[in-house]
Amino acid sequence: MLQTIQTNLCRMRQICRLKKGFGTLEAVIIIAVILSIALLFRKTLSEYATRLINDVFAGDPLAN
């Protein structure tokens, strides 16, 4: 009886470890996809960020 309980606990620990590994792998894949998209659209994203920053800081906020 005790052996069966220990075996079941060992299996549950192994399953938990496997699930943690899948979460890490999924995070790495998502980061890789985001970086790939950023590299593909590097020029467009850079122009957008520059335009946005220029629009935000174009005027003098104390002029009002």
Cα-based radius of gyration, to the nearest Å:
25 Å
How many structural units, i.e. domains? 1
Q: Element order, helices and strands? A: HH
Task: State the secondary-structure class.
Answer: mainly alpha
Share in helix? over 70%
Low-pLDDT stretches are none
**How many strands in all?**
0
Q: What is the residue-averaged pLDDT?
A: 80
Sheet bearing the most strands, described? none
Structure description:
By secondary structure, this protein is mainly α. It has one domain (2-56). Helices cover 84% and strands 0% of the residues. It starts with a helix and ends in an 8-residue tail after the last helix. The relative contact order is 0.05.
Please give a quick description of this structure:
The protein contains 2 helices and no strands. The protein has 64 residues and is mainly α. It has one domain.
Task: Please describe the topology of this protein.
Blueprint lengths: L1 H39 L1 H15 L8
Question: Main attributes?
Answer:
single chain; 2 helices; 84% helix; elongated
